[in-house]
Design a protein that fits this description.
This protein is mostly helical. It has one domain: Orthogonal Bundle (Tetracycline Repressor, domain 2), CATH 1.10.357. Helices cover about 80% and strands about 0% of the residues.
């Protein structure tokens, strides 16, 4: 897939998800949104779930880049954690459709590849956090008495809750805007 076209597809798919919800994302909707023919887009996707897989693979790549950037930044472990979560928060602010994908209840059941991608993302985050926390313990920045795995789980659960709250808030804002536009049309 041509990189420029890939970015256009990701942007258009994200826009559909944010405007109409994840269930509205389909090859046909993407064709309409992008103003391209079925033939052009069918060369990229054979089924609607292929779009979800593209988006999740792109999310995985972006998170991988964030982790790489933080890991090579020569910061202290506590600064690495701060930098990582600020970067993740910025990513989800810029592309909130990723949150919709992550928290979609039945998405993992639609294609066997989807839970594999999600699990890879989680595992990568766990491994990096574990590394940073252990390094912080060695440098006496973090308490050595608490198990590292426990801290990693607490951090990931807390971040997940925070991101879910952000997703719910964005959904409410979108729904209010839809209601407002419908009442103005009446």
């Amino acid at each position: 897939m041509i990189v420029e076209k890939r970015e256009d597809i990701i942007d258009a798919a994200g826009s559909i998800i944010l405007q109409s919800g994840i269930n509205a994302l389909s090859i046909e909707e993407l064709e309409l949104k992008m103003g391209i023919s079925h033939q052009e887009l069918s060369s990229y996707f054979s089924k609607d779930n292929d779009i979800h897989i593209l988006l999740l693979n792109h999310l995985e790549h972006e998170i991988q880049q964030l982790i790489k950037n933080v890991a090579t930044s020569n910061l202290s472990p506590d600064e690495e954690l701060q930098n990582l979560f600020k970067s993740l928060n910025k990513l989800f602010d810029q592309k909130p459709f990723y949150l919709v994908l992550i928290f979609a209840r039945d998405l993992a059941e639609k294609d066997s590849e989807i839970p594999l991608i999600l699990n890879r993302i989680i595992k990568r985050a766990e491994n990096f956090l574990l590394h940073v926390i252990n390094k912080g313990k060695q440098e006496n920045i973090f308490q050595a008495g608490t198990k590292s795995r426990y801290l990693v789980n607490r951090i990931l659960v807390s971040f997940r809750l925070l991101m879910n709250e952000q997703r719910v808030t964005e959904t409410l804002v979108r729904d209010i805007a839809l209601l407002k536009s419908k009442s103005n049309a009446d």
